[in-house]
Amino acid sequence: MLRVVPSRPYAVRATAPVRVADVGGWTDTWFGGPGRVCHLAVGPGVEVRARRTNRTGGAPSVVLESTALDPPVTVTQTADGRWAGGSSVRHLMLEEAVCEVLEGVPADEVGRVEVVIGSQVPPGASLGTSAAVVVSLLAALDTLLAGGRRTPEELAVLAHRVETVRARREAGVQDQWAAAVGGASLLEVDPYPTVRRTPIPLSDAVVAELGQRLVTVVFAPHDSSAVHREVIGAHCPRRWLDTRRGVTRASRDRRAGPDGVGRAPRCRHRPMGRVAAGMHQLAAGAS
């Protein structure tokens, strides 16, 4: 008797942590580097459940549902073969994350997919929740539709590209890496957005102590991209204010230097924080 085993799963559950206790924040941005950032990834964070449905007829589509999405967000294939959502500015990043995966999948293999997004952390809490949502959404759809070939590091890079290039938002790189890789990490960012990650091993005793001592209080939501733009406007030369041009020029100039001698143009903003000291203290506590 021939038994057909599906080559792809029917349903997928993906989770991603959020990020706390970062030291060196802002140096992971295009205008604040080269940078070094130390952080901890913690849970509970974000959960994404994606499943294929048995519905037939209609265009291939992916429907996103969440308590924060009313009505649900639908990404479908247009008459010219492109994937597109409702072009809602509020949910553009989610739509672009879905499109990023679907563009590499034949339409007849998509069918109809339903996605439910849940988060234990309120949006706009300054803990990297948006990045965790995008990372877990990419991971779920990549596994469900594209074979799950992407590594956590590749998902981090892809999630950052979705946010900054496709959705045209301002963002550093640390939130995506915390969500995709987890744990305690030291990230060296040079040139932006290239990341070299060093994991910081923590003993079970240190993890338990951190769990008892780390407390985050959220007073009100904020828009991280808007905060980035405020900092850029206040501290960066006007020639760097165009995000797309700034990212391209900053990356190029960090390689060659503005005058060809290997130095990088830097904004006046210099965040306080001793990243290396924080890393060594964490490591010392783990030994």
From TrEMBL:
<dbReference type="InterPro" id="IPR020568">
    <property type="entry name" value="Ribosomal_Su5_D2-typ_SF"/>
</dbReference>
<feature type="domain" description="GHMP kinase N-terminal">
    <location>
        <begin position="106"/>
        <end position="183"/>
    </location>
</feature>
<protein>
    <submittedName>
        <fullName>D-glycero-alpha-D-manno-heptose-7-phosphate kinase</fullName>
    </submittedName>
</protein>
<dbReference type="GO" id="GO:0005524">
    <property type="term" value="F:ATP binding"/>
</dbReference>
<keyword id="KW-0418">Kinase</keyword>
<dbReference type="GO" id="GO:0016301">
    <property type="term" value="F:kinase activity"/>
</dbReference>
<feature type="region of interest" description="Disordered">
    <location>
        <begin position="247"/>
        <end position="268"/>
    </location>
</feature>
<dbReference type="InterPro" id="IPR006204">
    <property type="entry name" value="GHMP_kinase_N_dom"/>
</dbReference>
<dbReference type="Pfam" id="PF00288">
    <property type="entry name" value="GHMP_kinases_N"/>
</dbReference>
<keyword id="KW-0808">Transferase</keyword>
<dbReference type="InterPro" id="IPR001174">
    <property type="entry name" value="HddA/FKP"/>
</dbReference>
<feature type="compositionally biased region" description="Basic and acidic residues">
    <location>
        <begin position="247"/>
        <end position="257"/>
    </location>
</feature>
